[in-house]
């Protein structure tokens, strides 16, 4: 909640037309649920086809406005603009590193000992990579996302060497 509220505050200070549009979109699509153990912001459900169209129009603004905002309190590194794959890779690496350095004998994931970490990476030849992200909508497949993916691959190569 604090990260979301802080981002709204930052947008309000900006006072640009795009910031006002972003605030409007965020306030339209998110509501604060204070009935949970910790108050959280929730994305509201789509009610009809018209709302669905509006959501897809607003999506880029929402994602750009919330870039870097924590998705869930208490989970470091899970933020808007990062893929779940990135979070999983970084979490697995931090788990192995922290457990191995603290107590090698206790380095376990459930009943499995953590002795090493590996990763699998494939590149498909003669395939348009945009075809793998169609469900996100073509407007979300852009150079920024490709750059993030390449940064993650580079980090994973360095972390595993």
Verbal overview:
The protein has helices at 2-14, 17-29, 49-66, 84-102, 143-159; strands spanning 30-33, 40-43, 108-109, 112-113. It has five helices and four strands; from the N terminus they run ααββααββα. The strands form two sheets. Strands 1-2 form a two-stranded antiparallel sheet. α2 (17-29) crosses α3 (49-66). The chain is mainly α and 161 residues long.
Write the layout of secondary structure elements.
Layout lengths: L1 H13 L2 H13 E4 L6 E4 L5 H18 L17 H19 L5 E2 L2 E2 L29 H17 L2
Antiparallel strand pairs: 1-2, 3-4
Helix pairs in contact: 1-2, 2-3, 4-5
Distance between the termini: 38 Å
The unreliable regions are: none
Beta-strand content: 5-15%
Helix content: 40-55%
The side-by-side strand order for the widest beta sheet comes to 1-2
How many helices?
5
* Category from helices, strands and their pairing: mainly alpha
Question: What descriptive keywords fit this protein?
Answer:
161 residues, mainly alpha, two-stranded antiparallel ribbon, two-stranded antiparallel sheet, 50% helix, globular
Q: What is the compact description of this entry?
A:
With 161 residues, this protein is mostly helical. 50% of the residues lie in helices and 7% in strands. The chain has helices at 2-14, 17-29, 49-66, 84-102, 143-159, and strands at 30-33, 40-43, 108-109, 112-113.
């Amino acid at each position: 909640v604090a990260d979301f509220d802080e981002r709204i505050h930052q947008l309000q200070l900006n006072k640009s037309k795009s910031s006002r549009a972003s605030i409007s979109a965020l306030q339209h699509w998110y509501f604060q649920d204070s009935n949970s153990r910790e108050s959280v912001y929730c994305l509201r459900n789509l009610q009809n086809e018209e709302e669905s169209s509006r959501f897809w129009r607003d999506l880029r603004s929402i994602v750009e406005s919330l870039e870097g905002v924590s998705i869930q309190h208490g989970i470091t590194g899970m933020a808007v603009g990062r893929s779940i794959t990135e979070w999983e890779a970084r979490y697995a690496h931090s788990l192995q590193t922290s457990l191995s350095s603290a107590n090698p004998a206790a380095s376990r994931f459930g009943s499995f000992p953590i002795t090493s970490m590996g990763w699998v990476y494939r590149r498909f030849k003669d395939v348009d990579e945009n075809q793998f992200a169609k469900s996100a909508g073509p407007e979300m497949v852009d150079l920024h996302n490709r750059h993030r993916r390449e940064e993650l691959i580079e980090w994973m190569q360095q972390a595993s060497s």
